[in-house]
Amino acid sequence: xxxxxxxxxxxxxxxxxxxxxxxxxxxxxxxxxxxxxxxxxxxxxxxxxxxxxxxxxxxxxxxxxxxxxxxxxxxxxxxxxxxxxxxxxxxxxxxxxxxxx
Amino acid sequence: xxxxxxxxxxxxxxxxxxxxxxxxxxxxxxxxxxxxxxxxxxxxxxxxxxxxxxxxxxxxxxxxxxxxxxxxxxxxxxxxxxxxxxxxxxxxxxxxxxxxxxxxxxxxxxxxxxxxxxxxxxxxxxxxxxxxxxxxxxxxxxxxxxxxxxxxxxxxxxxxxxxxxxxxxxxxxxxxxxxxxxxxxxxxxxxxxxxxxxxxxxxxxxxxxxxxxxxxxxxxxxxxxxxxxxxxxxxxxxxxxxxxxxxxxxxxxxxxxxxxxxxxxxxxxxxxxxxxxxxxxxxxxxxxxxxxxxxxxxxxxxxxxxxx
Lengths: 101, 308
Description:
The complex is a heterodimer of chains A (101) and B (308).
Chain A: E1 2-11, E2 14-19, E3 24-29, E4 42-48, E5 51-57, H1 59-100
Antiparallel strand pairs in A: 1-2, 1-4, 2-3, 4-5
Chain B: H1 2-20, H2 44-50, E1 60-64, E2 73-76, E3 82-85, H3 94-100, E4 108-111, H4 116-128, E5 133-136, H5 144-156, E6 159-162, E7 168-171, E8 174-180, E9 196-201, E10 204-208, H6 214-222, E11 231-233, H7 245-251, E12 255-258, H8 271-279, E13 283-286, H9 287-290, E14 293-297, E15 302-305
Parallel strand pairs in B: 3-4, 4-5, 5-6, 10-11, 11-12, 12-13
Antiparallel strand pairs in B: 1-2, 1-14, 2-3, 7-8, 8-9, 9-10, 14-15
């Protein structure tokens, strides 16, 4: 079966793959991956009985994930920034009230 | 309608302008004061797990939680604030441990870098325990778990900040100093971009290295930062990628603690790294042989519970 997987990291001669949406992990020899494989790259893999039969770099999937994740992260940073600002304004407001009252 | 809405729109515009006008300086600072996050009286289960009857008052506890092959460190401050640095793999048991020791909410969660053995367990933490603030480095990942982590942070409503050298994360009356990553976006690998933190309580200093490698260690020394630590959380599971003799000579650790799973496929800890730690006369503890290790500091000194 052809599945998606991401290269989570390398540990010297080993590569750690997160298969599917991340709940399955596969540790494979680094040399069983394409030579241009890099951390964070998505692959199309064939896994059978816990063994990696084939792996091909999937540039399109990598780009898609990168775009989606960058967007989510930017949104989260923006939301947190506003949260922080609101908290500051509230705090300053409370301090001002304290002074005048 | 437009009359009613326009002040709101102006406010939003103002807020956005302010937000873009360099609010980064506000990030990473303390949240409003909150009640303790840890039950004062440990439950029977907690007493059994921690093996201590003493009250938490005046004591800083640092728990190096046995999560197999992964990192998860719990800090409980003398004023009852709680922080978790990393969460081990997905379903690592970190949540169960937090409950056992009476942690009901977390004031701070730090992800040192988005590799699965540090990040995975934080997803369940964020989904089940109230978290006030989440801090991470600036290096983004494309992994499925990193996306789930961002989703979980978003759903939790926790404040999310990205930190770099020179900033501090406050935790009650204590401060976690960020020694790494340096300013600007890093192009190196994720380990090298790990968030490195130093915590001082009275006469005891802790250094939490994440998976920072020798290059990151050198950059920290070159920046002239104080790295001295009585207790060192050894970088990268005591792999040979980290813990250079030059760096260890400056840290001068009395106690070195590494995270590793028994029989892990990567051969962590590496023999030469253990030798380097022994060379600086550190007492070495590993979660692979000792299980969970707890360091308790009272401001003057500290004790370590765990098999050496």
